[in-house]
Amino acid sequence: MNLRLFNTLSGQLDEVLPADGAVLRMYACGPTVYDYGHIGNFRTFLQVDILRRALRLFGVPVRHVMNITDVDDKIIRNAAAAGVPIAEYTPKFEQAFLEDLDSLAVERPEILTRATQHISEMVHLVERLAGKNAAYRTEDGNWYFRLKAFPEYGKLSKKDLEGMTDGARVDVDEYERDSARDFALWKATNAGETGWETAIGRGRPGWHLECSAMAMEYLGESFDLHAGGEDLMFPHHENEIAQSESATGKMFARHWFHVRFLLVNGRKMSKSEGNFFTLRDLLLRSYKASAIRLALISVPYRHQLNFTFDGLVEATSAIDRLRTFASRLRAASLEDGSTAAGLATAACAQESFLAALANDLNTAEARAAIFELVRDGNIALDAGRLRSEDRDAMLRVLDVFDSVFAVIADNDAAPTKTAVEWARAHGKLNEVAPELLAASTLTDAEIDARVEERNLARRQRNFRRADEIRDELASLGIILEDGRDGVRWKRK
Ligand code: AMP
Ligand code: ZN
Q: Where do the domains of the chain lie, and which CATH numbers do they carry?
């Protein structure tokens, strides 16, 4: 069975197979490491994970490259505000991002690469474009891509370049250029600002340039598949195509995979709306990593996902059902042999599961096929109708399912522990659900801080809050004694 996926470029479902007949070369735009990743970001990275796992299941080896954008305007602004160079600012967010990928059981790409390690390849690409008159330098030292040099511009997002009026572009800035639609390849910087001294002048790369240079460095000038969230289709991916194809004269990526956005309670996620969640926020509220993973992957990548807490609770109980079924199967003492019905149930579930994935990664139907197996398997177990080979066949189907979904194997303790340790190190223990704190003992200093917080609440006559803190500490086995000379605490 071959995997068919919607290709934004061709506008239809295309088979995804390696052009070289051996390894599928794919590039996925990675994170900009200026903050912690939010669940929208992870929805996209998870769907790319589903893609690479499904490809493996269909027997297609992958070479997956992901960049880390470790230089950009927001990084430079945040690093300046923190008073450190960008090279000191980004590593902690890159580290957190990788931890979060591990928490969500997202497989690491074969190649993970940072923008700042590829400045010379980017400069070289600008030189190549300049050599073809597709790039030009303005007086202030910036380099722009000449859109007129690439008549196919708009072929990915199906935007009509002629219809776009000058100034209607996304990143209009103040510099002189031939056309307001020409986009920046390289931004000049002054000494003292973040920048590199290069053959095209002092400056730093534009974001689009980074991805083109890194993709071509590791995958060649022409490769199989390029992935990212739907917001990247225009202008980011359109610009990647324009610069890469203008430089090489070859098709850049054959297949474009775009993941639709995640909404929270039907609205765009935003800090000001109060509906913005990082992965860590959810883990600290004691949702399990596996449930977060399942909730983010169960809606197929081309559908908008409306994230809700009810959805997370549903995912939690779905995982319970799966795990209970798997352990029931393993523990059952069954007669040797097989039954036609038992084997058919397993075979049918596997076939539907694979067919659903092959059909544009329909994770919702793939998941439904496995839940049918859970239902029928449980009924057969209850009725004493299952034989040992039926069981083995069903367990094998669960393994196939989990090679893509990765939620049955219970690895939930580690992500929670990582998140609580992070909260502890960042003075955010007040954001941790009490039941999680119980599992990790508070230090004396942390208890003192809590007691002090309660004293303050009492002085402010906020007795409700004071009682809450006392109860919370009690639930962690810490008893407070209100004496005449202050409050003392002891461990139960
Ligand atoms: P960034 O770190 O902002 O460059 O984003 C990393 C990835 O997350 C990109 O592929 C984005 O398209 C994707 N992304 C950002 N917000 C969302 C969202 N709400 N839903 C799905 N994907 C998103
Ligand atoms: Zn990119």
A: 4-259 (3.40.50.620), 267-405 (1.10.730.10), 413-491 (no CATH)
